[in-house]
Design brief:
The protein is mostly helical. The protein contains 7 helices and 2 strands.
């Protein structure tokens, strides 16, 4: 298994556990993402997984059913990405995206894992769950996001950076870089 496939599985498992921890009354709770509820955040994450699979398969992304079982949609979408990463031919297929042409594995290892990791924290924060993120995934997300800095702050992207406190750990520095206040 590649490092990317392993990291995706780790980050996806973290998100899965937080989805499973959402209490019935928390679906409409606000998240650290402006204007998004817990429901909206999970639907977004499902949509991202489906969008990258559509790029890989040269198809239209399956729309998220907002009234359907979001945990089941998440499990199906993340399973599809994990299986594609486990297939060397599919993982190495070149796909397009907002960061140019790259292998499916690269797209997942960079954008998808970073997005999923940050939204795992958002979901944990919104639902009073464990906010601890995988340290290796935090390091990789920081490597990917740091060079993009101002480009990721366009409308609909990340908020302004927050200056981390002295002695902040890697997770706090990443979250602050992405405009989140742990």
């Amino acid at each position: 298994m590649s490092e990317t496939a392993d990291r995706y599985r780790t980050v996806a498992a973290g998100f899965t556990s937080r989805v499973a921890g959402v209490e019935p009354g928390q679906w409409s709770s606000p998240t650290p993402c402006p204007d998004w509820t817990v429901h909206d955040l999970i639907a977004h994450v499902v949509g991202v997984q489906r969008a990258v699979m559509a790029r890989l398969d040269d198809t239209e992304a399956v729309a998220v059913d907002p009234d359907g079982d979001l945990p089941a949609q998440w499990r199906e979408a993340s399973k599809a990405v994990a299986e594609a990463l486990g297939d060397d031919t599919r993982a190495s297929k070149v796909v397009g995206g907002m960061f140019g042409e790259q292998s499916f594995e690269s797209l997942v290892g960079r954008m998808v894992c970073a997005d999923l990791l940050l939204h795992s924290w958002d979901l944990a924060r919104a639902t009073d769950q464990d906010e601890t993120l995988d340290p290796a995934a935090v390091a990789k997300a920081g490597e990917f996001l740091a060079p993009l800095d101002e480009a990721i702050r366009a409308p609909g992207g990340f908020a302004a950076k927050i200056e981390p406190p002295a002695g902040a750990d890697d997770q706090t520095r990443l979250l602050n870089f992405c405009g989140r206040r742990p």
